[in-house]
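Reading a protein record of the kind used here takes only a little practice. An example makes this concrete, so a full record is given next.
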Amino acid sequence: MALIEMLGFGPEGWGGVLLLAALMTVALTLAALAVGAVFGALIAAAKLSRFRTLRVLGDAYTTVFRGVPELLVIYLFYFGGSTLVTTIGQWFGADGFVGVPPFVIGALAVGMISGAYQAEVYRSAVLAVSRGELEAARSIGMPTMTMARRILIPQVLRFALPGIGNVWQLSLKDSALISVTGLAELLRASQVAAGSTHQYFTFFVVGGALYLLMTSISNRVFNHAEARVGRSFKRNFARN
């Protein structure tokens, strides 16, 4: 009975705190995935460029953010970002230390790590598009933007979707590392609840169960999206 009260949503329960923390984790992962999509698309374009300098820069980005431990990247962003903002603030007359919101730091840090993986996903998806379709579009004089909108982007999204699902799962787990900045995401809330009640095993098991629940739901969403996109392409192919 005491366990139910402790995990419930009453005045003495931690259920509401853990639920809000789980929602914060999802929000942080969504923001990070969006940031990563921007950086990933730019880096993929650089790696596919005919200019050697851009290809080298793209390779350097993916090597650094895939090779350096995620926790170290978060620390560098947290302390380096706060130092930078403090310096800029002092230029405009601000006094003392100026901190950067942990959510912003988390979204940027995890997002740029995600971007390194998304870049490879997008690059592989572009290379998987049939060159014959693109050459046929050029041969009939189709404008570049129209060709990208009607041929390239839809197929890239189709081929990239499974990889993006894997990157989502990776970012969801990496979001737990943001607890070191004090953001009240799921791992941080589990730590606080465990420390307050001294029920460490219970709350870490509950936290792990919530992570498994989120990943299971995510798998179902991405599997449904892949099946839906696959059916859509089959219908379009049949019409043609």
In short: The chain has one domain: 2-239. The domain at 2-239 is CATH 1.10.3720.10 (MetI-like fold). The chain has a mean pLDDT of 87. Residues 93 and 116 are 37 Å apart (CA to CA).
